[in-house]
Specification:
Elements (H helix, E strand, L loop, with lengths): L1 E7 L4 H13 L6 E7 L6 H8 L5 E4 L4 H15 L3 E5 L3 H11 L4 E6 L8 H11 L4 E4 L2 H10 L6 E3 L21 E7 L8 H13 L6 E4 L4 H13 L6 E5 L4 H5 L2 E6 L8 H8 L3 E5 L15 E3 L4 H13 L1 H18 L2 H17 L2
Parallel strand pairs: 1-2, 1-4, 2-3, 4-5, 5-6, 6-7, 8-9, 8-11, 9-10, 11-12, 12-13
Helix pairs in contact: 1-13, 3-4, 4-5, 7-11, 10-12
Length: about 375
């Protein structure tokens, strides 16, 4: 069977999920897949080349006008003749399904990658209309699935396939033992409206007032305005000796393995891959209790959940994790075991392959 995956060219989490599914499914004898990216400002030739070097047939359509996006994807579908078109993320899942309908692709699959997408009443109406021609609507976590149901998508078509990662990059046997790591915090995330680095910075300030001067590193770039605002806040709160901005980091598994604590302060999520990566790296997790995150953990057993947008709650959690080393180390071990048992690429890709095969059997 032939499968086309259509996703943003912004190289976000949804792009990586599509890439990982294609890499895995292309190793099977009965599934052949290609990747189509909708061009963004951040879509560079270097990034495209990195995907093509992995053996992924990667193609590009314009992101300037919706009608042109639909037209160009339609042409690719007419030429490639896929059995299945998988459209990832908002608003690509709308334009992708229009193209799939026009090209008469037998099976359309909509994958939702976030719990809070920018649906206007018109976009939601379009998505619901398209759902009648869609074989399955997938939430990348149980929380995202429940949100799709709340929005009114057809219950008989909505399922969840939780995200997974390639765990071979996170071999526990070569990781630094927990008690030999830096008793510091790292947050790896882009600077954007979705994330809440501000609350984490304020939490570090609250701890400093109590005489606890813990160091924090931010890995990642993002929107310049959000990054600059965070840097200004660090300077305003006199935290420049404690908080470091690492910028873009390519060696994430090695970087995460140096820290005892990983923090994700965020406003909303789908199912963040970086949290799974931090768990697999053996970090103790403290994270905002939002949809897409809270379903991943048993509080204080394999992760520590805190009230969203609360610097005080974050400060209290960090203080406990720093003070009780045995508790923190055990939580990190439990989280690592959960990542390996529940959030593997093999499990995620296996569920997608089973779905693809079941759909094509019904043709």
């Amino acid at each position: 069977m032939r499968v086309v995956h259509f996703v943003t060219g912004g190289f976000s989490g949804s792009t990586n999920v599509a890439k990982e599914i294609i890499e895995n499914t292309n190793q099977t004898s009965d599934i052949e897949s290609i990747l189509v990216l909708r061009k963004k400002k951040s879509t560079t030739e270097e990034k495209l080349k990195s995907f093509r070097n992995l053996g992924i047939d990667t193609r590009l359509v314009t992101g300037k006008l919706h009608i042109l996006t639909i037209q160009q994807l339609y042409r690719i579908c007419k030429e490639y003749k896929p059995d299945i078109l998988v459209v990832h993320g908002f608003s690509e899942h709308i334009w992708g399904r229009y193209a799939g309908l026009l090209a008469k692709v037998p099976h359309l699959i909509h994958v939702e990658h976030n719990s809070r997408e920018r649906y206007t009443w018109l976009r939601l109406k379009q998505a619901k209309w398209l759902s009648q021609y869609t074989a399955k609507i997938i939430g990348c976590s149980e929380g995202v699935k429940q949100n799709l149901l709340r929005l009114g998508f057809p219950a008989e078509k909505v399922i969840s396939i939780p995200n997974g990662i390639n765990l071979t990059r996170f071999d526990p046997s070569i990781q630094v033992p927990f008690n030999q790591r830096k008793a510091e915090i790292i947050m790896a995330a882009r600077f954007a409206r979705q994330k809440d680095q501000t609350s984490l910075i304020k939490a570090i300030s609250l701890l400093k007032i109590k005489g606890i001067e813990v160091k924090l590193s931010f890995a990642g770039l993002g929107k310049t305005s959000h990054l600059v605002a965070a840097q200004k806040l660090v300077k305003k709160l006199d935290l420049e000796q404690q908080i470091t901005f690492l910028g873009h980091c390519t060696n994430l598994p090695e970087l995460l393995a140096q820290y005892q604590i990983f923090a994700l302060s965020t406003h909303y999520e789908g199912m963040p891959l970086v949290l799974i990566e931090a768990m697999a790296s053996g970090c103790a997790i403290v994270a905002s209790e939002v949809v897409g995150v809270k379903e991943m953990f048993v509080h204080a057993e394999d992760g520590y959940l805190v009230e969203p947008q609360s610097p005080q709650a974050l400060a209290n959690a960090i203080e406990r994790l720093l003070a009780d080393k045995d508790f923190t180390a055990k939580m990190a071990t439990n989280g690592q075991n959960k990542a390996r048992s529940q959030f593997s690429l093999e499990r995620m890709a296996g569920e997608y392959k089973a779905l693809f095969r079941s759909l094509c059997k019904t043709q």
